[in-house]
């Protein structure tokens, strides 16, 4: 069987306020063309169909059009919800849509009910694990801890139990939306850290013929059978070096796979340029970037006059301007605020702030735990709100306020 693995469409998203809907439409045209030209037997979409829980109407219309075209192609399609999607909204009408060959898997309780596909060699059980927010599903899966590894391992336990009831030789596919250890992050993915733990070991998918992953925006091979397709478009300048693709995967009679990357259309390449303003405006080697989306980092010792206006005369699609003055030789390097924060999690930023206001005294283990609880409560409350679980929102919001008060009381000592 040949299937096409994609994810992280983020319909409705912009790039530095530049709407990407036209580019997203072109990608979906390309997907449908690939389905026909490469004789694809099934399409797998591993979450984050939309960019936010309540997407704009234009994004919903684009998704609706894609569903109709996939159904018209009579190619089975399996989709799961990601952490950006509202699982409940995305799953509305799933039972009816299922009859058209579009299988939406958004309910964690159904993770062990596969979509059964078949080819000349028998059945393929295709299981969809929607994004599992640990604090919201730990009771469903009866896990002792609200960690990603625990809930995904429990869900995979149900998958294996169902697979064991299938005829011998049944091949298996799992769709999941998670951060699997070994994957490389970019700046455009939303943090899903829980209690400081987000990574799931690849071994949790052991015994499955192919795990189609979503969440990370770079196309990656974790193991031969565990892969990220990545997003079809770049959504931050940290993805400027990415080659945007989908996976075309052939699954043979014995469960062995052959995977090929299929390029997706690029509306404009992304370029990160660095140097003085005059240098960027006169360097002939940069001519190739005049049609690119540009992030320019200026290293002038003093901020130039009208830098954006001058840059756009040569690079009309400049979207981001960063100032990082270079110091004289031998002078102390003073990192910018953005540099100091780059790559640091919210928890680390908060701990640094506590140390700053206390004259260098860092938070102790108990205070770190209070901060972590506060961040987790707010993040989970946000996820619950997006999923539409009002009861959990109320409980979590109360907890977040309580944690915040504890944090301000506990770590505020000695600040004057």
From TrEMBL:
<keyword id="KW-0540">Nuclease</keyword>
<comment type="similarity">
    <text>Belongs to the SbcD family.</text>
</comment>
<keyword id="KW-0378">Hydrolase</keyword>
<comment type="subunit">
    <text>Heterodimer of SbcC and SbcD.</text>
</comment>
<protein>
    <recommendedName>
        <fullName>Nuclease SbcCD subunit D</fullName>
    </recommendedName>
</protein>
<dbReference type="InterPro" id="IPR029052">
    <property type="entry name" value="Metallo-depent_PP-like"/>
</dbReference>
<feature type="domain" description="Calcineurin-like phosphoesterase">
    <location>
        <begin position="1"/>
        <end position="218"/>
    </location>
</feature>
<feature type="domain" description="Nuclease SbcCD subunit D C-terminal">
    <location>
        <begin position="267"/>
        <end position="356"/>
    </location>
</feature>
<dbReference type="InterPro" id="IPR050535">
    <property type="entry name" value="DNA_Repair-Maintenance_Comp"/>
</dbReference>
<dbReference type="InterPro" id="IPR026843">
    <property type="entry name" value="SbcD_C"/>
</dbReference>
<keyword id="KW-0235">DNA replication</keyword>
<dbReference type="InterPro" id="IPR004593">
    <property type="entry name" value="SbcD"/>
</dbReference>
<dbReference type="InterPro" id="IPR004843">
    <property type="entry name" value="Calcineurin-like_PHP"/>
</dbReference>
<keyword id="KW-0255">Endonuclease</keyword>
<dbReference type="Pfam" id="PF00149">
    <property type="entry name" value="Metallophos"/>
</dbReference>
<keyword id="KW-0269">Exonuclease</keyword>
<dbReference type="InterPro" id="IPR041796">
    <property type="entry name" value="Mre11_N"/>
</dbReference>
<dbReference type="GO" id="GO:0004527">
    <property type="term" value="F:exonuclease activity"/>
</dbReference>
<comment type="function">
    <text>SbcCD cleaves DNA hairpin structures. These structures can inhibit DNA replication and are intermediates in certain DNA recombination reactions. The complex acts as a 3'-&gt;5' double strand exonuclease that can open hairpins. It also has a 5' single-strand endonuclease activity.</text>
</comment>
<dbReference type="Pfam" id="PF12320">
    <property type="entry name" value="SbcD_C"/>
</dbReference>
<feature type="region of interest" description="Disordered">
    <location>
        <begin position="390"/>
        <end position="416"/>
    </location>
</feature>
<keyword id="KW-0233">DNA recombination</keyword>
